[in-house]
Amino acid sequence: MRLSKNITKTIKTIPADEQATNAKLLIRAGYIHKEMAGAYSYLPLGLRVIENIKQIVREEMDALGASELLMTSLQAKETWEPTKRWDDSVVDIWFKSQLKNGTEIGLAWSHEEPLMLMAQQLVQSYRDLPISVYQFQTKFRNELRSKSGVMRGREFIMKDMYAFSRSQVELDQFYSEAQQAYLKVFDRIGIGDYTFVTFASGGAFTQFSHEFQTVTASGEDTIYLDRSRRLAVNEEVYNDEVLKQLSLKKGQLERVKAAEVGNIFNFGSVKGEQMNVYFTDEAGERQPIFLSSYGIGISRLMGVIAEHFNDEHGLVWPVPIAPAKVYLLAIGDKKTIKTADKLYNVLTGHGVAVIYDDRDIRPGEKFADADLMGIPWRVVVNAKSSTDGYYEIKARTETSLKNVQLKALLDIILT
Ligand code: ATP
Ligand code: MG
């Protein structure tokens, strides 16, 4: 990515009504553009972060055996009526609209019901099961408040996965595998140390749902955390009885703010029965399909990470999701720029994602932007580089520089 040819620009003035640190930083650093409260566009750098997060999630969902699909954003009223979830008093965040002929439709806020209807057609026998599918999709929710930047959008990107099972035992098996996969995802993204399985409400079939909560002061949730057991209880279900049930001791729990980055639900056979989605078992009997669903807030994750990893100079992306690994710039004459051009080609030739700051501005501004954008490595080509073959490399989180030749540079960057 050559900055001179890219729409990316760091900006000095952020929208006056923006309160959230994540949004302020992401806007200033040129990652997102605010359309209105709760709706943000992803600029090229922001999109790269989103795609990097998605790719990690995709690999772990594929490893579970789930297949990726993409469902519609327009949803039919009839689909949601059997479970009562069309009703605004049951689901209070619907965006609804009408077709020209007056037919009511809704904008997707979740996909359990549409997916169940799809299963009604595609799953008939026990031989078709178990099966799981997932998607990355834009969800619409008419949230009352939207003051947490990309951590709470009225339009946001979610990964949602749905598993169809033949029995509660089979469901439970997948549920625990998915839970492990989620922990792997958060580890790989760089927030594993701060993210905890949390008992929460919302179980349609079981008493609890399980949330994945990342500890951060900007989180909207309060959880009670047992660090040694890496387990937490959401405030909403926190009481003596629950603590006893989970063998948690009040004295060992920390009350902390956290952001829900994922949530998994066990619906048991409830939805199958409500929506008349059955399969024929080995004995030829009709049985309701068992459903579980698994969400991860992809765009919320970007916000949580921006909140967590930053310093006075700007963002500090974990390497696995950074929009580029290297921020490259030249200080010097035409010859130096030529050397930088060459290095840019060598690095990209090795598959390294590089932001090449080839703009005609002062080096100081480039340094500031490299820090603000939070790119893991900064590489400077200077007047001597073309003759002595040395480049200056600095990690985003360090102040000391290293002067290295190409081989050593590649060693650092490629590991
Ligand atoms: P919350 O309690 O934060 O409103 P939720 O429990 O309604 O979230 P789910 O329906 O479980 O959310 O959605 C799955 C995941 O999608 C959540 O764990 C969260 O990470 C993300 N998410 C939910 N609502 C939003 C939103 N308005 N903006 C961004 N991400 C969201
Ligand atoms: Mg939730």
Strand-helix topology:
Layout: H1 21-28, E1 32-36, E2 39-42, H2 44-63, E3 67-68, E4 74-76, H3 77-80, E5 95-98, E6 104-107, H4 112-122, E7 131-140, E8 155-165, H5 168-189, E9 195-200, E10 209-215, E11 221-226, E12 231-234, H6 240-245, E13 254-268, H7 270-275, E14 278-280, E15 286-288, E16 290-297, H8 298-308, E17 310-311, E18 314-315, E19 326-331, H9 334-349, E20 354-357, H10 363-373, E21 377-382, H11 385-388, E22 390-395, E23 402-405, H12 406-414
Parallel strand pairs: 3-7, 9-12, 19-20, 19-21
Antiparallel strand pairs: 1-2, 4-6, 5-6, 7-8, 8-16, 9-10, 10-13, 11-12, 11-13, 13-16, 14-15, 17-18, 21-22, 22-23
Written account of the structure:
The protein is built from 12 helices and 23 strands. The chain is of the alpha+beta class and 415 residues long. A 5-stranded mixed β-barrel has the order 9-10-13-11-12. A 5-stranded mixed beta sheet has the order 20-19-21-22-23, sandwiched between helices. Strands 4-6-5 form a 3-stranded antiparallel beta sheet. A hairpin with a 2-residue loop joins strand 1 (32-36) and strand 2. The two termini are 21 Å apart. The model has no long low-confidence stretch (mean pLDDT 96). Bound molecules: adenosine-5'-triphosphate and magnesium ion (MG).
Give start-end ranges of low-pLDDT stretches: none
Q: Rounded to an integer, what's the Rg over CA atoms?
A: 24 Å
What's the number of structural domains? 2
Q: Tell me the name of the CATH homologous superfamily of the largest domain.
A: Bira Bifunctional Protein, Domain 2
Q: What ions, cofactors and ligands are bound?
A: adenosine-5'-triphosphate, magnesium ion
Question: What would you call the shape?
Answer: elongated
**Strand percent estimate:** 25-35%
CATH architecture of the largest domain: 2-Layer Sandwich
CATH fold type of the largest domain: BirA Bifunctional Protein, domain 2
The chain-level structural class is alpha+beta
The largest sheet, given as strand count, sense and whether it forms a barrel, is:
5 strands, mixed, barrel
What is the typical, i.e. mean, pLDDT? 96
What is the CATH top level name of the largest domain? Answer: Alpha Beta
| Proportion in helices | 25-40%
Q: How many extended strands? A: 23
Counted by DSSP, the helix tally is: 12
What distance lies between the first and last C-alpha atoms, to the nearest angstrom?
21 Å
Strand order of the largest sheet: 9-10-13-11-12
